[in-house]
Each structure stands twice: as structure tokens, then as C-alpha cells.
Amino acid sequence: MTPRRPQRRPVVELYERIVDAVRDDVYPPGSTLPSELELATAFGVSRPALREALILLQEDGVITVRRGVGRTVSERPVRRGFERLQPMEALLGEGSAKVRPLRRILEEPTDLVMQHLPVPASCEVRFWNSVIDVDGMPACLTEEWCLPDETLAEIAPALPDALTAGEPAPHTMLHTLISGAPYLPLTGSSTMTATVLGRLRGTTFGRSPDTPVVLVTHVVSVERTPLLVAKYVLPSGAPTITVRQSR
What we know:
Elements: H1 10-23, H2 36-43, H3 47-59, E1 63-66, E2 70-73, H4 88-93, E3 97-107, H5 111-116, E4 125-134, E5 137-146, H6 149-155, H7 158-164, H8 173-180, E6 186-196, H9 199-205, E7 212-222, E8 225-235
Antiparallel strand pairs: 1-2, 3-4, 4-5, 5-8, 6-7, 7-8
Protein name: GntR family transcriptional regulator
InterPro entries: Bact_HTH_transcr_reg (IPR050679), Chorismate_lyase_/UTRA_dom_sf (IPR028978), Tscrpt_reg_HTH_GntR (IPR000524), WH-like_DNA-bd_sf (IPR036388), WH_DNA-bd_sf (IPR036390)
Keywords: DNA-binding, Transcription, Transcription regulation
């Protein structure tokens, strides 16, 4: 079976290419971008498509526009948000975030899993529990479940091997799935709830059970098939996560 390639909006693809150029210092912070004609030629796109991407870049603060000066790359570092599906360790800070595995087991699906994944109660699903440390301090507790291996193999044969290679993997499950089959057209949706840490999770963080937290429930799908469900626990004081939205 030939792997299906992801279909992404051209303007999002162009947006990411320009952001990559900024991150690679092709257009360093504080510099003025070339003219629209020069940029369109450099990226091989039409000027209307370029203008749409430039509007999104301005809305996200990647560039600023001033009369008589033109488009200038912002001084602050470029950060990626939820528009492009990424594992939590990347959102918390590439380079400074490290995943610390706690548990990597097979278990019967919980009510939460069966609510979000198309699995029977009699099967076994893979469960990964991890802590993400940022600059040496625990910043996020992750709990992730995915479809059974035989179902994963039908979607992408490489996925079961990716999840079992080099255990315990020093990554989140989402990171491993994205790396194991980068061609899959994955999408994600999240809900966020304000709650408290609780006794068991408080022990993991070494913090009081009544510490305020944001609980993110994240479902990742390939086309319309849910592939993974995750819970991310972010206590007060966790690093900021940029959420970028466009239409």
C-alpha cells in the first residue's frame, strides 16, 4: 500500500517555510523583508498567496509592518503553536524540554479511552506515562493511549515497531507516532479544563494536591479515525504554550 501524503493548505505550508527561514537567520530578527516580488520569486509562489501568508505572519507577531519602513522581522524568537501538530515536549521548548518515562505498559482500555478511541473493552492498548522536565523542573505530566498494535499496523505498518523500539522511549507517544510515520495526515483537537493537581499527581510533581492545573485532553486522528488520546497536566508555573489560530 502506498503511504498517503498529508494535504495541507498552501498558505500554511508557505507560512511555515517563511518561519523556517526566519529561524535559520535567512531573515534575521530586526531585518527588513525583501519586496513582495522578490519574496514571491524566492519561494516560487504567486503574490496573492504570499500576501495571505504575510497577513498571518503579521497577526502572529512574526513580522511587523510600518509605513515607510516595510515588513520587519520581530526581535522576539519565533515560536510554534498548535496550528502545526506537535508533541508536547516541542511546544514546551525544543532543547530545554526533556521527557522522563514513568510507565510503558499494555492495559485494558479505561472509560476515557473507550470514549475517544474505537476499541473494545476486551483488547489491550498501549499506555505511556511520562513527565516532561523543562530546565530540570517537572512542567507537565503526560498520560497517552493509542490503538492496539494490529490496528496501528493497518494504518501504517511502521507504527508498532516505532512504539517498541528502544523502550523506554525518551519521548512522548505522539512524538514517536509522528516520527514513525511522518507522511500520515494527522489532525488534533483539544479540550482544556481548570482543576487541581490531586494527591497522586502531586506526589509526581512534589507539590501540594490543591495546586491549580490546566488539564488538556488531546485526541489525534488520521483522517476520521482517532489514533491517540492523551491527557496533559500543566500545573501553575508551567512554561507558556503559544496557541496560534487562523481561518
